[in-house]
């Protein structure tokens, strides 16, 4: 998966950095609309992915929107960091070494049944696991990620 900060130069106006995950840039990102709506309350989010680049990209993008982000490199590490009430949302990759994302979601739901879990994956399972609240496929638009957060964590 491609992840980068894409530099866009506007003639006579200098450049700007545009976050991009998976090579896609949404229209609102092209227009420079990166910040979250003032109607959206910042969330406490645990991002779980075994690829450090994905962790960093998601932490950066979520941080741009004012969210507090912690990262974990595995399901096991996520369970060590997780405390009921400490997070508003958990985002996890599906295909990780050791504990898979759906297994992590099941374990988290035993600790805190109401915690929303967003499964982010390039290789989705044929059926959404029951412990997962929403599934998004990679690559995705940043606007789609924001919509998912709003849906799972209404203010």
Write a brief structural summary.
With 155 residues, the chain is α/β, with parallel strands linked by helices. It has helices at 27-30, 52-64, 75-81, 101-111, 142-152; strands spanning 3-10, 14-21, 44-48, 68-72, 89-93, 117-121, 134-137.
Features:
5-stranded parallel beta sheet, alpha/beta, 155 residues, Rossmann fold, 7 strands
Percent range for helical residues? 25-40%
Task: Quote the distance from N terminus to C terminus.
Answer: 31 Å
Mean pLDDT: 82
Corresponding CATH architecture: 3-Layer(aba) Sandwich
The percentage of residues in β strands lies in 25-35%
Instruction: Identify low-pLDDT runs.
Output: 1-39
Strand segment count: 7
CATH class: Alpha Beta
CATH superfamily: Response regulator
CATH topology: Rossmann fold
Strand order, largest beta sheet: 4-3-5-6-7
Largest sheet: 5 strands, parallel
Shape: globular
Number of domains: 1
> What structural category arises from helix and sheet content?
alpha/beta
Count of alpha and pi helical runs: 5
In sequence order, what are the helices and strands, one letter per element?
Answer: EEHEHEHEHEEH
Rg calc? 16 Å
């Amino acid at each position: 998966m491609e992840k980068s900060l894409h530099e866009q130069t506007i003639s006579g106006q200098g450049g700007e950095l545009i976050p991009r995950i998976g090579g896609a840039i949404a229209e609102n990102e092209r227009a420079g609309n990166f910040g979250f709506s003032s109607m959206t309350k910042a969330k406490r989010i645990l991002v779980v992915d075994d690829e450090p680049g994905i962790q960093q990209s998601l932490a950066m993008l979520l941080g741009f929107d004012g969210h507090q982000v912690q990262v974990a490199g595995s399901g096991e590490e996520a369970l060590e960091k997780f405390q009921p009430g400490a997070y508003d949302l958990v985002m996890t990759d599906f295909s990780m070494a050791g504990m898979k994302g759906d297994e992590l979601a099941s374990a988290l739901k035993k600790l805190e049944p109401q915690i929303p879990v967003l499964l982010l994956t390039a290789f989705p399972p044929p059926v959404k696991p029951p412990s997962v609240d929403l599934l998004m496929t990679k690559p995705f638009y940043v606007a789609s990620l924001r919509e998912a957060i709003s849906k799972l964590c209404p203010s």
